[in-house]
C-alpha cells in the first residue's frame, strides 16, 4: 500500500473515536474545564458545548405506537450569572392515557481541582417532581457543586403515548450553542407538519429506511364433541417505511435580548412538529390540525371546555339577584365582570381547560384561567349577552404562527357588539373591559362560538395609553430646584402602575420614586384612584433636588430636569425581530421653570418636531422663555405597539435624536 495513503487512513481512523467522544456524555476534557471564556462571545455567561436530541417510535400490541425523545446536553458555565443554566425542568402530561414519563440519567457536574477532573453526580435531593394541575407535571433537576468554570451534563428521556406534538427543538439560545443536532424518525403512518422559526437554518438531511414490527396472534380450534382443543400461535410481520431526518447547526450565536421584546423565544431559531395526518393501512385517512377552524372546533368540544359553558345552575340564583333592576347590556357586562373579579380568585394556573370545573371554582371561590373566564362567559350568556370564549397564547408562551391544538394556553371572554368586541379577563382584579392583563397582549387570539365558527381576534391595543405630567419648578440662586408635580396615568399605564405599586408600602414606593428621579427629595405625596379603576391614577407631590450645574457666573441644566431619558434603549446595530412596545403610548410633559433673580437666559435649545417616515413615532419639543420663566412642552407618541424589524434603524435613530434633544441644556448667565 502507498505509504502516504496508509498514514492518511490511519490518521482518520485514530481521530474517529475522538470525534465521537466529543459529542457523548461522560468524558469531559481538561481543555473544556480550563476555558475561561467563549472563543467567539467573550461576554457569554455560559455556552452549550453540545446538545443532541433524538425522537423515535416503538410499537407494542398493548399500547400501539409510543414516542421516545432522548436528549443529551453538555453546558459550560463561565460566570456566576450563568448558574441558572445548571438547572433544568421538563413538563409532562399526567393523564393515564398518555402514559408519559420523564427520567433523568448521567447528570453530573465536572470541575477541575488541583489539576484533576472531579465529577459530582446528581443525587436524589437534586431532583424534584411537581404536579402543576391535573393535566401537567414538571420534573426539575438542580446540578450539584456548580462553580465558575464548571461543565455540567445530563440526559433525559421522555416516553409518551401522546404522539400529536413534539416538544420544540431550539438550535439557538440566549447563550452560544457550539453544536446542536436533532434527529427524527417517523413511521409512514404519521405525517407531521414541520415549522421552522428564527433566522438561522440548520443543515437538513433525510433518508428512507424499511422497518417492521411483529403482531402475535392466537387462535383456538376444536373442543366440539370429543375433539381436543387446539391452540395455534401466529406471527404477522408488518413492514413499513420510516423517514429519518437530521437537523444540524454549529457555532450558533446567542440571540441577545434587548428592550421591548415580546418573548425572545419567538425569534430563536428552532423547529416544531405537529401531527397533521394519520394513515394506517386499510383505514380511512384521518386529518388533524389542518386549519384554525378545525383546531378551535375540537377544543370547544373538549369535555373541560364547551360543556362547562352549559353549566348554569350553580350561579343562577346569585346572578339573577345581582342583576335585578339592571336592564342595559353595558351595566350587565360591568356588573358581572366586577362580580367574578371580586369573588373568584385566580390560582395562578394557565390553560384553556378547566381543572376542577366551574362549579367547584365557584364553590371554592378560586380557580384557574379557564374556570374563571368560562364562568364569566356563561354568566353573560345567561343574562342575554352575546359572549364567547377567545383562545390565545400568552406572551410567555410565544406566538403561534400555524394552526395547532397546542398553540393556546389561555382563554378570555369576548362580548360581540355592533361596533366590535369587548374583551374581558376576570383573572386580574385591576383589569377593565378592553384593558387586559399584559400577559394577554400577544398578537392574535381566536374567538370560538357554539356552532363551531371562529374568528381571528386582534389582541394588540390601538388606543394611546397616556402619561401626562405637569410640573412647576423654581431655581434658587444656589442652584437648588424646588417645585410641585402632578402626574396622570390612563388605561394600560394605569393598569401597570396598579399591578406594580398599589400594594407596595408607601415608604418603599417613595424611596423607589426618589431614586428613579435622580435622588430628589419628595414630600406632600398623595395618590388618587388606586381602587377606582375607571378613573386615571393621579399622583401629586412636592420635590427638592439639585440638578443644576454652576460654573462661574453661569448655570447649566436640562429643561426636563430629572425627567429626561438618559440612554437609548436600543443598543444593537441590527435587529431581526420586531420591537414590541406592548401598547401605544403618549407621554406629555408640561414644565414651567422660574429662573432665579439676577440671572437671564443666555441660550436655550431650539424647538424641534420629529417623526418617523411611517408615522409610528412622533416627538414634539417646544420651548420658549419670557419674563423670567421658561415654558416647555414635550410630547412623545408611540402610535404602533409593534414596529417591524425593517424599521429598527429608523426607530433607533429617532430615539437617539429625541434623547440628544432632551440632554441639551439651558444656560443662565448672571447679570
Key attributes of the depicted protein:
eight-stranded mixed beta sheet, disordered N terminus
Helix content: 10-25%
- How many whole angstroms does the radius of gyration measure? 32 Å
Q: By helix and strand content, what is the structural category? A: alpha+beta
What overall form do the CA principal axes indicate?
globular
Please give a quick description of this structure:
The longest helix is centred in the N-terminal third of the chain and has 20 residues, at 3-22. 18% of the residues lie in helices and 41% in strands.
Structure characterization notes:
There is one protein chain. Helix 6 (329-343) packs antiparallel against helix 8 (369-382). The strands form 8 sheets. This protein has an 8-stranded mixed beta sheet with strand order 5-4-8-2-1-10-13-12. Strands 25-26-24-23-30-34-33-32 form an 8-stranded mixed beta sheet. Strands 20-19-18-21-22 form a 5-stranded antiparallel beta sheet, covered by helices on one side. Strand 23 (465-475) and strand 24 (481-489) form a beta hairpin. It has 11 helices and 36 strands. With 671 residues, it is α+β, with helices and mostly antiparallel strands. The N and C termini lie far apart (100 Å).
Amino acid at each position: 500500500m502507498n505509504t502516504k495513503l496508509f498514514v492518511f487512513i490511519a490518521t482518520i481512523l485514530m481521530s474517529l473515536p475522538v470525534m465521537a467522544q466529543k459529542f457523548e456524555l461522560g468524558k469531559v476534557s481538561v481543555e473544556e474545564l480550563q476555558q475561561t471564556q467563549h472563543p467567539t462571545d467573550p461576554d457569554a455567561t455560559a455556552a452549550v458545548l453540545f446538545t443532541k436530541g433524538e425522537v423515535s417510535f416503538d410499537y407494542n400490541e398493548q399500547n400501539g405506537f409510543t414516542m421516545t425523545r432522548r436528549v443529551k446536553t453538555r453546558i459550560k458555565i463561565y460566570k456566576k450569572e450563568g448558574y441558572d443554566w445548571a438547572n433544568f425542568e421538563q413538563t409532562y402530561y399526567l393523564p393515564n392515557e398518555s402514559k408519559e414519563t420523564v427520567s433523568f440519567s448521567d447528570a453530573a457536574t465536572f470541575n477541575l481541582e488541583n489539576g484533576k477532573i472531579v465529577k459530582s453526580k446528581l443525587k436524589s435531593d437534586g431532583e424534584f417532581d411537581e404536579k402543576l394541575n391535573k393535566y401537567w407535571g414538571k420534573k426539575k433537576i438542580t446540578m450539584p457543586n456548580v462553580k465558575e468554570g464548571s461543565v455540567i451534563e445530563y440526559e433525559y428521556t421522555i416516553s409518551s403515548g401522546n404522539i400529536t406534538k413534539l416538544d420544540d427543538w431550539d438550535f439557538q439560545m440566549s447563550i452560544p450553542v457550539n453544536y446542536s443536532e436533532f434527529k427524527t424518525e417517523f413511521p409512514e403512518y404519521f405525517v407531521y407538519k414541520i415549522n421552522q422559526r428564527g433566522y438561522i437554518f440548520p443543515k437538513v438531511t433525510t433518508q428512507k429506511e424499511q422497518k417492521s414490527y411483529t403482531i402475535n396472534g392466537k387462535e383456538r380450534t376444536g373442543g366440539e364433541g370429543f375433539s381436543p382443543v387446539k391452540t395455534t400461535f401466529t406471527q404477522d410481520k408488518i413492514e413499513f417505511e420510516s423517514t429519518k431526518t437530521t437537523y444540524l447547526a454549529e457555532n450558533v450565536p446567542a440571540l441577545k435580548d434587548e428592550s421591548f421584546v415580546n418573548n425572545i423565544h419567538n425569534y430563536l431559531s428552532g423547529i416544531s412538529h405537529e401531527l397533521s395526518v394519520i394513515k394506517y393501512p386499510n383505514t380511512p385517512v384521518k386529518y388533524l390540525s389542518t386549519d384554525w377552524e378545525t383546531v378551535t372546533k375540537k377544543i370547544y368540544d373538549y369535555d373541560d371546555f364547551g360543556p362547562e359553558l352549559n353549566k348554569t345552575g350553580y350561579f343562577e340564583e346569585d346572578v339573577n339577584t345581582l342583576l335585578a333592576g339592571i336592564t342595559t347590556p353595558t351595566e350587565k357586562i360591568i356588573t358581572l365582570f366586577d362580580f367574578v373579579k371580586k369573588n373568584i380568585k385566580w390560582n395562578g394556573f394557565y390553560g384553556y381547560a378547566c381543572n376542577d370545573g366551574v362549579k367547584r371554582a365557584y364553590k371554592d371561590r378560586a380557580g384557574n384561567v379557564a374556570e374563571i373566564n368560562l364562568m364569566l362567559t356563561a354568566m353573560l350568556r345567561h343574562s342575554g349577552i352575546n359572549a364567547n370564549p377567545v383562545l390565545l397564547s400568552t406572551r410567555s408562551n410565544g406566538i403561534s404562527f400555524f394552526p395547532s391544538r397546542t398553540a393556546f394556553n389561555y382563554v378570555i371572554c369576548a362580548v360581540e357588539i355592533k361596533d366590535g368586541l369587548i374583551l374581558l379577563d376576570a383573572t386580574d382584579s385591576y383589569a377593565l373591559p378592553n384593558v387586559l392583563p399584559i400577559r394577554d397582549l400577544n398578537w392574535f387570539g381566536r374567538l370560538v362560538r357554539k356552532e363551531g365558527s371562529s374568528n381571528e381576534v386582534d389582541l394588540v391595543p390601538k388606543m394611546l395609553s397616556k402619561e401626562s405630567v405637569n410640573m412647576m419648578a423654581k431655581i434658587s440662586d444656589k442652584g437648588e430646584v424646588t417645585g410641585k408635580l402632578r402626574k396622570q396615568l390612563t388605561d394600560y399605564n394605569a393598569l401597570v402602575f396598579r399591578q406594580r405599586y398599589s400594594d407596595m408600602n408607601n415608604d418603599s414606593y417613595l424611596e423607589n420614586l426618589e431614586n428613579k428621579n435622580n435622588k430628589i427629595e419628595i414630600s406632600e405625596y398623595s395618590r388618587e384612584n388606586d381602587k377606582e379603576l375607571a378613573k386615571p391614577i393621579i399622583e401629586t407631590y412636592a420635590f427638592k433636588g439639585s440638578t443644576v450645574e454652576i460654573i462661574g457666573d453661569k448655570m447649566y441644566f436640562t429643561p426636563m430636569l430629572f425627567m429626561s431619558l438618559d440612554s437609548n434603549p436600543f443598543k444593537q446595530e441590527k435587529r431581526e425581530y420586531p420591537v414590541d412596545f406592548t401598547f401605544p403610548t403618549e407621554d406629555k410633559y408640561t414644565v414651567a421653570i422660574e429662573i432665579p433673580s439676577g440671572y437671564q437666559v443666555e441660550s436655550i435649545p431650539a424647538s424641534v418636531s420629529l417623526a418617523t417616515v411611517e408615522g409610528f413615532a412622533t416627538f414634539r419639543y417646544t420651548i420658549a422663555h419670557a419674563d423670567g420663566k421658561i415654558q416647555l412642552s414635550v410630547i412623545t407618541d408611540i402610535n404602533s405597539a409593534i414596529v417591524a424589524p425593517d424599521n429598527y434603524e429608523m426607530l433607533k435613530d429617532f430615539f437617539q435624536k429625541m434623547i440628544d434633544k432632551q440632554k441639551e441644556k439651558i444656560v443662565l448667565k448672571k447679570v
